[in-house]
UniProtKB/TrEMBL annotation:
Annotated source species: Flaviramulus aquimarinus
Annotated family: Belongs to the NAD(P)-dependent epimerase/dehydratase family.
Protein name per Swiss-Prot or TrEMBL: NAD-dependent epimerase/dehydratase family protein
The organism's taxonomic lineage, starting at the top: Bacteria, Pseudomonadati, Bacteroidota, Flavobacteriia, Flavobacteriales
InterPro entries: Epimerase_deHydtase, NAD(P)-bd_dom_sf
Segments forming domain NAD-dependent epimerase/dehydratase: 5-252
């Protein structure tokens, strides 16, 4: 019998990658529920859906009544729906709070009424960046790090606050209402169609605009970058792992690189030989971040296949092609970090 799966937020970057992998395996009944408002909701995705038996339910799941359209007997529930993006946290933090809290609360209350067996809630490495910043915790960072945000009134942290609510909510509802729950904390999953409010599309756009000298915002900050297929596979491995329950996994890549490394590598794709200059980055941006993925490797058998330089190749190509063939929209355009240093609280 096919395994019955619901992916809330399955129209997005990671959710659609999960759907493609499960569909290719062939023994799943997949339902994708999503509001479908992303910029790149495209013909290619719809053609993919039409070539499959995947069921689509379109709607805004901050409205609890939409959960009435869902079945009750999914084996697996991937909860990926969320409002994301640094720009959104800085410009509309109240919407981050409203949307993410409602999606989490509605999902949890719906789960109480279902026979769903396995749940993955997707969280973020931003939940512990405050701990690293304030208390100097280990990098690479394992799952047992205490979660902390640096400044409670800073809009940048509204996203992490909602993800902490989700982690606590899903793990505690799981214990009371008897489903298996895994929390995935992603660190910078990259690939084609990752959205436009990320460092890579911004940088690609600026190289295409022939920015000279090329500014590197926060060049000494560090991150790690993991290819989408690896991130999606890590999520599926966590969902389908029989032994782990109420467990947290850091999914990402373990090589810590500087933003300067990243930008200069992207520059090579454009044969850029001009000058680079350093500039301050977005407020609230942490100086170092890299996950320890040992637990995911040993418990789940997770094994990233692409190095960050390899992951950049299809990613940069997709954005170059996209920007060359589409009129830039306001949504796509790069916003200078300096804009957010003004008087915004
Ligand atoms: N991509 C990363 O590197 C990363 C890092 C940390 C955490 N995450 C988390 O992983 C999950 C997936 O991330 P992603 O990169 O695929 O983001 P994404 O924006 O591509 O996907 C999120 C999906 O949620 C949907 N959604 C938003 N509001 C909705 C609503 N009201 N009703 C129904 N659907 C709604 C969006 O339409 C979108 O398709 C998110 O929860 C995100 O917070 C991702």
């Amino acid at each position: 019998m096919n395994r019955k799966v619901l992916i809330l937020g399955g129209g997005g970057f990671i959710g659609s990658a999960i759907a493609r992998i499960l569909n290719a395996r062939g023994n799943y009944d997949i339902t994708i529920a999503d509001i479908f408002t992303r910029d790149q909701d495209d013909d290619e995705f719809m053609a993919f859906i039409e070539s499959t038996n995947i069921k689509l339910i379109k709607g805004d799941f901050t409205d609890a009544s939409l959960f009435d359209d869902l079945d009750k007997d999914y084996e697996d529930f991937y909860m990926l729906a969320s409002m994301i993006g640094v720009n959104n946290t800085l410009e509309i933090p109240h919407e981050i709070i409203r949307v993410n809290t409602a999606l989490i609360y509605n999902s949890l209350e719906w789960l109480k009424t279902t026979s769903v067996k396995n749940v993955v809630f997707t969280s973020t490495s931003e939940n512990y960046s405050g701990t690293i910043e304030r208390f100097g915790y280990d990098i690479p960072t394992p799952e047992d790090i205490p979660l902390c945000i640096d400044k409670i009134d800073h809009p940048r942290f509204t996203y992490a606050v909602t993800k902490m609510l989700g982690e606590s909510g899903f793990m505690n509802y799981a214990k009371i209402f008897g489903f298996k729950c895994k929390i995935i904390r992603y660190s910078n999953i990259i690939g084609p169609k990752m959205g436009f409010k990320h460092v890579i599309p911004h940088v690609v756009q600026r190289f295409l605009d022939n920015e000279k000298p090329f500014r590197i915002f926060g060049g000494d900050q560090t991150r790690s970058f993991c290819y989408i297929d690896d991130g999606a596979m890590g999520t599926i491995l966590a969902m389908e792992n029989e032994s782990a329950t109420n467990d947290i996994f850091h999914i990402g890549a373990e090589e810590e690189i500087t933003i300067e490394d990243l930008i200069k590598e992207i520059g090579k794709h454009f044969n850029y030989s001009g000058e680079y200059v350093n500039a301050p980055t977005y407020p609230g941006s942490v100086s170092r971040r890299c996950p320890d993925i040992t637990k995911a490797k040993t418990v789940l058998g997770y094994k990233p296949t692409l190095k960050w330089q390899e992951a950049l190749i299809p990613t940069v190509k997709w954005y170059v092609d996209y920007f060359k063939s589409h009129e830039k929209t306001k949504n796509n355009s790069f916003e200078e970090p300096g804009k957010f240093f003004s008087d915004k609280k």
